[in-house]
Amino acid sequence: MIQLYNVCMSYQKDASALTDFSLKVPKGDFLYLTGSSGAGKSTLLKLLYGAEKPSRGQILVNGMNITRMRSWRIPLLRRKIGIVFQDFKLISTRTLFENVAFPLEVQGKKRYEISNKVYQALKHVGLQGKLNRLPLQLSGGEQQRAAIARALVTDPLILLADEPTGNLDDDVANDIMELFKGANARGTTVVFATHDREMIRRFPRRIVVLDKGRLVEDHTP
Amino acid sequence: MLQTIGYFIRRVGRNLRQTPVLCSAAIGTVAVALMIIAFFGIVVINVQQVARQWSREIQVVAYFDRVPDAGKLQGWKASLKNLEEVQQVHFVSREEAFKRFQKRLGDDADLLEGVERDFLPASLEIVLHEERRNKAGVEAVVARLRQIGELQDISYEPEWLERFDAFVGLLRVGGFVFGGFLLFAALFIVSNTIKLTLYARREEIEIMTLVGGTPLFIKMPFLLEGALQGLAGGLLALIGAWALFSLMLREGLHGVLVVAGVDGILFLSATQQAILAAGGLALGLVGSLLSLRKFVRI
What subcellular compartments does it reside in (chain A) (predicted)? Predict the structure, then answer.
């Protein structure tokens, strides 16, 4: 599903964010991307959803070489990817329903289809009773669940998560983790960036460790 | 397609409702900018009116030594009328010249008692087309007249013509430079005001790009919104310009223009009003487009 070959990425000439990085993630895999702050986790995720272009190397996502992809095709790639962020990135002036409906509106889905899918997605994360609330009227855990509902509402092939439990306490983080496990069980490939070793211990999966932009460890428990 | 258009319209409506202050600021900015342009336009239109009035006095008069016979006269008139500069050629006989002079003297016409009625020379009065009432046009006519050997004198006031040409040129260049500057300043201000509204919605734009929105899909509601705000600003500018015209300009300019020989002061014509409103729409659209370039990056 995801292949990276000798990928290098640098934001400045003398500072490399990723160095000669190669990785294969099969379809349906669940992978932790871990390492200390500045190790290159977020950069790697940005490369996968086309927000950055590598300085060198090739990246294939679902068979598409995104290093050679023209910019007008990037949105089409992103429609196959769900993204969850640490800071949720919900639109504060829109209700939960509107936030979750956003990716479907972008894809030009019909209104009745949007209503149905959004309701199902919110029900799946346990927020069907709060669909008319604004994000700031919810707790952090609820906001992250809404963000996951938004990421999953389009049935993406890949789910990318950048420290999604970083701002949440353990109990809430466990609930969030269950949602990712559920999505993975239904066939979605999950790449989960975190530096929370306790989380990895509780839910053991394949781990890829980065250090200063280099892959230093890749093992499956 | 209809569904997408419906979506854009709903989004525009929602955006306008959600940020009424910024929306009003954008409309107000367009309105003020266009009102200044409209104000300047009214002044230019009326000064042009003065120039047009003055240009009516631009004519060439050719005086004859002797009254030519009818055949020759017809030939010269026809030859002059063939010039593209010439609108009208009128022969003024000695008798007609005398009557005009008498009329001009008014109460003092009795001064002419005892004077022979044919003491004034016959002449040809040549009126030029409005767009040819300049130094070049007059000189073309004078050149043709010089080919007629039986003329005593040609009157066309070359110095006045030069001054008039310089005035019209200055008006034109000044209009373009100042109008262009105003338009550029308006575009700059409007674009920055719209940038503020986009800045307030930057999280929405960012999320749209992350969930797979195409640049056109993301930009379209903002462009429509900008166009709508621009149009509203343009209409508001028209109302404001009319109010300003009625309350201040009409009286103020009228006094100046009457001295210059112009009867009434003009407001923008229907076409110019439509151009101003369309200009508002274009200003909003271009302002949004310029601002969006920075905000929408895939």
Answer: Cell membrane
